[in-house]
Amino acid sequence: MIEIKGITKQFGKKPVVEDVSVTIEQGTITSFIGPNGAGKSTLLSMVSRLLDADTGEVLLDKNNVKRWKSTEFAKRVSILRQANFINVRLTVRELVAFGRYPYSKGRLTSEDEKFVDQAIEYMNLADMQDKFLDELSGGQKQRAFIAMVIAQDTDYILLDEPLNNLDMKHSVQIMKILRKLVDELGRTVVIVLHDINFASVYSDRIVALKNGKLVKNGPTNEIINSEALRDIYDMDIPIQEQNGCRICVYFNSHT
Amino acid sequence: MRNSTKLIILFVLVIISILLYGFYDIKGGFDYAFPRRMTRVAAMVITGIAISYSTVVFQTITHNRILTPSVMGLGSMYEVVQTLIYFFAGSMSIWIVNKYLNFGAAITAMILFALLLYRFLFRADKHPIYLLLLIGMIIGTLLGSLVTFLQVLIDPVEYLGLQTMLFASFSKVKAELLYIAAGILLIAFVYGYFIMKKLDVMSLGRENSINLGINYDRMVMNVLILSSVLIATSTALVGPITFFGLIVANLSYQFLVTYRHSVLILGASLFSIIALVGGQFLAEHIFELRTTISVIINFVGGIYFIYLLLKESRASG
């Protein structure tokens, strides 16, 4: 279980995340939503120890993430940030194999190869596994990075806006795969999303931030309603039901 | 062509160049000339490996392929030490006459300089690497100007002596210093060997490295220190060679398309031995010592550097 307790982060004098406490429940997809600059990515960075919190703490299985041995932590929690610029030439398979580093330290066993094969299979990358990353489209590259995180075989997978720059088809593909990871393999996914409808359709729980503060935290159906969304986005957003999915029709709302 | 084949070809070229340099035109006293040539070859081999290793790892942690450790002001620091010695103590002082003392002073000054610089820069807050490099370049320029200023004031005869110190040369390498340098470098290489796999991961960037369980910020510090020790030792042994690391590292990236540091560093090292031994051969036998190896290398390297800059600007533009 991941517990975030009263966490605060300031950049200069400006608090970016202020006194946020959230518990991430196992076996769910939890989406972090909120307007630009709400502190979603910063919060995710602190959970995954990319960034140190100023005050407060993040606990994984009751232990502060800072006290975890970094290799052991890497076997439990993985993080994928949005900007992944790499200036070395790597093939898809080589990238995915890096996901096994916490276990193999760079010397892949046949067991590791099996995980790599499975991850490539899972992300439908088998036919392009020997291509170089710089030959791929944005969506394919994003899938390759997610495959690396899957090969890492962690209980918790944290993703920072993985749908950025992806078209509808690839966005849906990736969200379906994340759903499968949770439903079939019992993983826990925490994801920062910009598109509120993806959060509504695919996540179990939603954590909403605004100006660095926690404004809503609960099961998806408690958050996706016009009143709650007004508190988060300062917009009147009508909701329509479509095949059991709640869709926010915000395109011509008053702001 | 597979990378192993390419490395074997390079290795054969290394052997050929060493044999050519060792046996070419060896008239008269073979017993006199051959051991002296082999001392130089040994110096070239260990400085070649040291420069290659430090440049490749430096470029990995700074995520660029154009800057080298000498940009951080290390080469300038060597010039500062030697110039200060000439300026204040003179060429007949114990700091010049005693080679051990001179070697020790240069190495200590360079490593202390690097440690102070990194400590100071990393203590305040976690500055981005670009800022670090920018400050390094400014300090390098400042030291360079200081050196020029002192050199203008120095006695012209003394200046000639200083000038030869500031040109890289393998001809003046003392065998005794070679053993000390080899000892320091051996320790550094042992550590350097064990972190190669970590370096592979670090080329994916800070965030991916931390995700994969690497203690990234501490490793960056360790690697910066390691590369300064390597550069300081090789510079104190033979003098500064500005563009050399840049050439061999980039030749290796282009020739061996891989992310593996074990392969890249081995490739760069083989390239550097070929270039140094070949360059020394040209300087001694073709130009008959009318020029030095560092002039040849900086000439070829400077052209290659301009080519790289043009290629980069075209790629991004």
Automatic annotation (TrEMBL), chain A:
UniProt entry tagged with the keyword Ligase: no
Please give the GO cellular component terms listed in this UniProt entry. Answer: plasma membrane
Q: Where in the cell is it found?
A: Cell membrane
- This protein's source sits in the domain of life called Bacteria
Residue intervals passing through the bilayer: none
Q: Which InterPro entries match?
A: AAA+_ATPase, ABC_transporter-like_ATP-bd, ABC_transporter-like_CS, P-loop_NTPase, Siderophore_ABC-ATPase
First-listed, main subcellular location of the protein, grouped into a coarse class: membrane
Q: Name one Pfam family in it.
A: ABC_tran
This protein's membrane topology, according to the annotation, is: Peripheral membrane protein
Q: Where is the ABC transporter domain?
A: 2-236
GO terms classed as biological process: iron ion transport
The entry's keywords = ATP-binding, Cell membrane, Ion transport, Iron, Iron transport, Membrane, Nucleotide-binding, Transport
One GO MF term attached to the UniProt entry: ATP hydrolysis activity
Q: Does the keyword Nuclease apply?
A: no
Descriptive protein name: Iron complex transport system ATP-binding protein
UniProtKB/TrEMBL annotation, chain B:
InterPro entries linked to this entry: ABC_BtuC-like, ABC_transptr_permease_BtuC
Q: Which UniProt keywords apply?
A: Cell membrane, Membrane, Transmembrane, Transmembrane helix, Transport
Q: Give a Gene Ontology cellular component term annotated to this protein.
A: plasma membrane
Tell me the compartments it is located in.
Answer: Cell membrane
* Pfam families hit by this protein: FecCD
The processes (GO biological process) annotated in the record are:
siderophore-iron import into cell
Q: Which GO-annotated molecular functions does the record name?
A: transmembrane transporter activity
Q: What is this protein called?
A: Iron complex transport system permease protein
Organism annotation? Gracilibacillus ureilyticus
